[in-house]
Design a protein that fits this description.
The complex is a heterodimer of chains A (about 180) and B (about 210).
Chain A: H1 12-24, H2 33-43, H3 48-60, H4 68-90, H5 95-106, H6 110-138, H7 142-157, H8 162-178
Helix pairs in contact in A: 1-2, 1-4, 3-4, 7-8
Chain B: H1 17-30, H2 35-48, H3 54-64, H4 71-114, H5 118-153, H6 155-173, H7 179-193, H8 197-213
Helix pairs in contact in B: 1-2, 1-4, 5-6, 6-7
Classes of the chains: A mainly alpha (about 180), B mainly alpha (about 210).
Chain lengths: ~180, ~210
């Protein structure tokens, strides 16, 4: 990969391209996370905290979870960043129309199905890889570990709304970290 | 099947653009709390209005998974296009994204104002690990469908699929490989390894046993 100057100011064209590329190369609401995480952190255009805040807002705000990208755009580059992020996550979806038209011709081919399954597994692996990176850089004590595991357990039940999980976590954070011990 | 791309449905008058816009607008602002709520609302709206059959919806949802971008935005684009062509697509996308994106930015902005309050700081120290826990949960839930199919196909394919999954995670987290490269490798390994492996393994074992016995 090209070496990048970690202190260069944000260039709007490159910034837009990084968001567009992340969206073009990924699928799902958080699929663009590993791309943006790698590219923006390396350039110093975003911090780990920006990502975590954007992901939390994306979970709580209405609409698809993928809108976390717009929150990240706003945190790193203001309204312009939010607008560029919105365009970047909308444009690649037009390819879905092409895929729907093309897919009928190849959908039954075993090689296509295996390739798709391989990519599906890769996407899941990337999701877990990013989670591990974030975990190892931000969770530093047993309280954080407990909250991570608790949220994981609640999320796996699929019965508890995500907003409620985050509200409980905020309460836990306030009790564990905010109250004078 | 012929109505799956473009064009309008022959047995129903095409919906008005304003109906499309307002339908997705209400989906966009109602769907607090993540993607499954949004998907539920889209499905309900399309089926109660007679815009799509259950089977057409399921097929659209499967197809958008394999093209780039956000699945909920893609299925909105595909359905909007099926209903009224390009104007329908534009109406559906704007209805879904403009209100919810605006609210997202306002929530982010609101948060950046209060993020230094001690109460908020402490609460965020709880929210951040929870976000990580939720995304691990998301990964595990996504892994469920392929892995349970693999379980039925035999133990070998479970091992191969877990190896592909863990390999991708490690390449990113430990080796800091580019996600594009990780996915390309995953796709190619899938083509090579995810075939009839149990069958191939059984044949290999049988073949070597027959050699030993002889």
């Amino acid at each position: 990969m090209n070496p990048v100057d970690p202190m260069a100011p944000i260039g709007p064209l490159l910034y837009f391209w990084l968001f567009l590329k992340a969206s073009l190369l990924s699928t799902g609401g958080l699929g663009n996370l590993p791309f943006l995480h790698q590219d923006l952190i390396a350039r110093g255009w975003a911090t780990e905290a920006d990502f975590l805040v954007a992901m939390a807002v994306g979970q709580v705000s209405p609409g698809p979870n993928g809108l976390w990208t717009i929150s990240l755009g706003y945190l790193t580059y203001g309204w312009l960043g939010a607008g560029l992020a919105l365009i970047a996550i909308t444009l690649p979806t037009l390819l879905a129309l092409v895929i729907v038209a093309l897919h009928r011709r190849v959908e039954t081919h075993p090689l296509v199905q295996r390739f798709t399954l391989g990519i599906t597994l890769g996407v899941i692996g990337l999701t877990l890889g990013v989670a591990w990176t974030l975990f190892s850089t931000t969770v530093t004590d047993w309280r954080g570990v407990m909250i991570t595991l608790g949220a994981l357990a609640l999320a796996l039940t699929k019965r508890v709304p995500i907003v409620l999980v985050l509200a409980l976590a905020a309460l836990a954070g306030w009790l564990l970290y905010g109250a004078p011990l | 099947m012929t109505t799956a791309t473009g064009g309008q449905r022959p047995w129903l008058p095409p919906p008005r653009l304003l109906d499309i816009l307002m339908t997705w607008f209400s989906i966009g602002i109602q769907s607090f709390g993540g993607g499954s709520t949004t998907l539920y609302l889209i499905r309900q709206a399309c089926i109660t209005r007679g815009w799509l059959s259950e089977a057409e919806f399921a097929k659209d949802w499967a197809l958008v998974q394999i093209s780039p971008g956000i699945n909920l935005v893609k299925i909105t684009a595909v359905i909007g296009h099926q209903l009224r062509g390009w104007p329908g697509l534009l109406a559906a996308i704007s209805g879904l994204l403009l209100p919810s994106a605006t609210i997202t930015v306002l929530m982010t902005a609101g948060f950046t104002i209060i993020r230094d309050w001690p109460f908020v700081k402490a609460a965020m120290r709880g929210v951040i690990p929870a976000t990580i826990g939720i995304s691990i949960g998301l990964g595990l839930q996504m892994a469920q469908a392929p892995l349970s199919r693999a379980w039925r196909a035999g133990r070998v394919s479970v091992v191969v699929q877990l190896a592909l999954l863990a390999g991708s995670a490690l390449l990113l987290a430990v080796a800091h490989a580019s996600p594009v490269i990780v996915l390309a490798l995953a796709g190619i390994s899938g083509m090579l390894l995810l075939g009839d492996l149990p069958g191939a393994a059984r044949r290999a074992v049988r073949w070597s046993l027959s050699r030993l016995v002889r």
